[in-house]
Each structure stands twice: as C-alpha cells, then as structure tokens.
Amino acid sequence: MDIIVCMKRVPDSAARIQIGGDGRSIDSAGLEHIISPYDEMALERALQIKEEQGGTVTVVCLGAAEAAKEIRQALAMGADQALHIKSDVGYRDPLTTARILADHLKGRTFDMLLFGKQSIDADNSAIGVMVATLLDLPAVSLVTKLDAADGKATVEREAEAGAEVIEVALPAVFTAQRGLAEPRYPSIKGIMQAKKKPIEEAQAPEEAALITLEALEPPPARTGGRIVGEGVEAVPELVRLLRSEAKVL
Amino acid sequence: MNFAFTEEQEDLREAARAFLADHSSGEQVRHAMETEHGFDPDVWKRVGAELGFCGVTVPEKHGGIGLGSVELTGLMEVMGEHLLCAPFFSTVCLAGTALRIGGDEAQKQEHLPALAAGQKIATLAHSEAGRGFDPLDFGCTAEPDGADFRLRGTKRYVIDGGVAELLIVAARAPGSDGEAGVSLFLVSAGSEGVTRRPLASMDQTRRQAEIRFDDVRVPASARLGGEGQGADILCRTLDLAAVALAAEQVGGAQRCLDLSVAYAKEREQFGRPIGSFQAIKHKCADMMLRVESARSAAYYAACAAADDATELPRAASLAKVYCSEAYFACAGEAIQIHGGVGFTWEYDPHVHFKRAQGSSVLLGDPAYHRERIARELAL
Description:
By secondary structure, chain A is α/β, with parallel strands linked by helices. In chain A, about 25% of the residues lie in helices and about 25% in strands. Chain A has a nine-stranded mixed sheet with strand order 9-8-7-10-6-1-4-5-11, with helices on both faces. In chain A, strands 2-3 form a two-stranded antiparallel ribbon. Chain B folds into three domains: about 5-120, Acyl-CoA dehydrogenase/oxidase, N-terminal domain (Butyryl-Coa Dehydrogenase, subunit A, domain 1, Orthogonal Bundle); about 125-225, Butyryl-CoA Dehydrogenase, subunit A, domain 2, CATH 2.40.110; about 230-375, Butyryl-CoA Dehydrogenase, subunit A, domain 3, CATH 1.20.140.10. Chain B has helices at about 5-25, 25-35, 40-50, 70-80, 90-100, 105-115, 230-265, 280-305, 310-340, 350-360, 365-375; strands at about 120-125, 140-145, 150-160, 165-170, 180-190, 195-200, 210-220, 225, 270, 270-275. In chain B, the strands form three sheets. A four-stranded mixed sheet of chain B has the order 1-4-5-8, with helices on one face. Chain B has a four-stranded antiparallel sheet with strand order 2-3-7-6, with no helix packed on it. Chain B is globular. The interface of A and B includes residues 185, 186, 189 and 195 of A.
C-alpha cells in the first residue's frame, strides 16, 4: 500500500499569536511551529497501515524552507520519503494551494492520498476535497476509521448523529478527523534514520492570487465577568443575557 | 570543541520534551510519586520500547542506538526539567554503563538488549551505610567458593533497588582494601539470599532501597571484567553517571528559573507584577547565572566523557559540584519567589527542592567532589 500524506506547517496551537507589522500576516518572531494536528493523525494512520501491510508513506509539504524541520519530524515518525514544495507565500487561497499540490501529485502512483480535515491556522477544510476533484479521485472527508484491502477502503466518517460506513475503490482521497489515530512520538532510532531519507525539493509556481487577504485582526480583548445575581433567582436573568447579549443560546 | 547540539541532537531533545510535557507534568509526577514503586509503568514502557531512550548509549549490535554521552546528557537535561519518575538513571546511566564498559561479549549479549528496550530494570549496588562517598569504601565481600563466589554484605541507598531485576553489586575479596580485590557481579534480584527493603528518602521521585546479600552464590561468569578490574570499571561508571546526573540537575535548575520568571510576571503585589521589583529581578538574574554556568560545566563534562578524555574524573567532579549547588540554590529561590505556595504540594518548586537535595548527595556530595578536585590538583 503506497500512501501519500499531505501535511502543513502551522503555528503551535499553544503559541500566543501576534499580528505582524503589515497587519496581514502573523508575526513569526519566536513562534514555534508544528505539523498541523489533523495532518499528523492522517500520517499516523498511514504509518500504521504501512506497518500492517507493507508499502511506502510519502509526505508532501507545501511551505517555507523552514518547514524542513516538520518534514524531518514526519520522516522520524516513520515516513519513507518526502516532497517539499517550497514557497515563501504566507497566505494562499485554497484553490491555488490545491492546484499546486495536484500538479505535483499528478503522475505519481499511490493507493491513498491523506490530508487532515483542516489545517489549524487557515481552517478552510477545503484542500483535501479540492485536490481530489482536480485529480478526479473519489474523496471521503472527516474519516474516523480507515482500513484498506483488496483495492478498496472501508471507512467510517462522522455524521450528524452517528457514523457512516463507506466503501470506496482505491486510489482515493481521505481527510482525517480526530479519533482516526493518535500520533506517535518520534523515536531516537527514527530521528537518526530521518537524516538519511530522501527529501525531494520543488519550487511552487508564482500564481496570481484568487483571493487576497486584506487584514488580520486579533479577537476582542476579554472583558471581566459580571455577577448577575446569586442562587436560583439569578437563573432567568442569566439565561436572558446568554440569549440576548452573548447570543450563545 | 562545539558546545552546540547538532540538528539530530536537538530533534532528539525536542521529541523527549514533547513526550514528557504530555506524560510527566507536575500533576503526573506527584501521582507517580505516590505509587508503590514511584513511577508509572506505562510511561516507563513507552520511554524504553516506543521512544528508544534506554538504548541511547547501547551499541547497535546490542539492540541500542549507539550514540554517546552528549546525546545522553541532552536527554537527561530534558528529563530533569520534567522531573521524570522512572528507573532510567539506574538502568541506563548506572547499570547500563557498567555493563557497557566492563562486560564481556556474552554478558552484553545477555543483558544489554533487554536494558536497551526498557524491558529489564537494573541498578548498581555499591554504597553502604556508615561509609563515605568514596566508591571503593565498602565492605561487602565476594568469597571464592569452588568455581563460584559467595556475596555477603548489605548495600544501602541503592537507586530503584526495590524494583530492579538485575543488580550489579560491588564486592571485594575478603581482607582486601582500597582498589585491590574489587569486583562487580551481575546478580539476579530474585537470587536466593537477596533481601530488599525500601528506604524512606527525601526525594520521592527517585526511590532507594537497602539490599542484603546473605551468602548469595554467583558464578565466576557473572563477574564484570577480569580479576582486579572492578575498581576501574566502578569508578569510571560513577564518573559517567555523575556527568549524566549533573545534566539532569541543569534541567531541574532551568525549570526552577522558568517557573519563577513565569510566576513573577503573573503574580501582582501593590498593583504590579512582583517581577518588576528589584529584589525579585536580582534573584532571577542570579538564578540564570547559576543555570548557565552549571550548563557549561555539564556540557564540558559530557564532551570529556564522549571523547574518553583523561580529564573526565576532574570534569565530572567539577560538574557535579557546580550543578548540585546551582540546582539546590535555584530550587530554594524558586520557593522564595513563589512565596507561601512555593512549598505546597500543588506547586512544583517543592518537588524540585527535594529532588535537588536528593541529587546533591547522590554519587558524592559537593564536599566529596571538591576533595577529589583538590587531589587532582595534587593538593
């Protein structure tokens, strides 16, 4: 089973995000980065399938030169090889990103193409299914269980009030939802082997942007809490405020 | 000489940091401390089997990774930051090192793969009650009995001695003294005549035990090294272990500084963060001076250990003195900066304080190591 996993380098979910001086990008000074967690879950399942059935796992990353660190981490976890499509563009619309990935994936042989359901920085939830469309492949999103045998995959995906079980012919595209697999930590052996694994490099083309990011704004500063009363007598007022002011009910 | 870690070494430390952040938080440490053996067996299993930490210095042909003291130092520093409760120091830094440098091929083949995989806990039993820190100051005897030896004596302060399955026991020929007649023996903890008793210790993150050997029969093939080589193996093992322990102390001291700075920024008094007061600033600055100096001493000792330099004993003692004092001072200051909550169960500084005190006297207190340095200076 040959599996390709697309992964993205994103700011650490625990990092405090500051907006850069241009007002349109994140200030990356001192910012830690990680593999987007859903991509990491996809990678873990790919590695498990490889360990069960044999085959290869290739990671593909479209991102800055600094993403080499996260690519090395994926190789240390057990991926066999990597393709690093280098790009210094900070923000790129989903369709352009999907086109670049599809162009580099076209002509490659694989049984499964895995993505996280979304990256945790852009949160578009679009790339996986867009790439599937561009490659004319079937796609199943929000996958929480994935098994493959005899040229087809059996998957479970989240539904409104339960799970859907789907069978799909391979090759196909899947996007990982939480629960698919718990990512492993790189072992020392994996870390030492990673430096010997091949990383193919390519340059992302400069394409005209379909969407332009005009500005980033931090969320409004949190204000202090308000005590609306005490005991059960306060409940009606609390409910009213949650409904009319906070608009969460 | 290069004091910067390589990319791979940094990746290794980062992997350790990520794992321990998830599995050795302050709360998890306190929980592990309360268990019977003082560690979480699942975490220990993952440290050995999944992450491969236990095999870091074990040669590849014996199931390890075949890295050196620098990588071990890097790992120990991260483990010290997170106060890892696990029999890593005893298994890897003490018993594993003794086996690696003193064992013959058959002994290595038999034991190192299990140690490297974290499947077997091992330790070194060398110190005894009422003796000094000199590693050769002990009375346990190994009396020849046909083709075998009979071990007699009581070891104390044996790290993880309550859970270790394999013991490396320092014993001497009856009537011998000093370096002469010292041997190290591989002894199964389940052997007839071995009795273990857990000891209460200040540092609950690292358990100790007393182990009695009543006429314990061991074959001659269980002796590490040839006749008369035991003292060299033991002293070298303890020097290498002292370097690893110094690195762990650096990690602990760094964490005390980090905790203090974070608290000083957050805790307000008189309407401003306490970190804005000169008294607190100076304390933190002094802590950083100690941490950075301790780190330099530990890294230098790690380089000496990796290069097999003749100055290892001096570098190890220097690192052990400085890192012990730096950790203890930083842990004490961390409690002061945290104020009343600093020594409560819920806050980490008090656990670091106890670990710092325990580690300070482990493998020789600062006074002992100063004496060693003075002897190295021919004084």
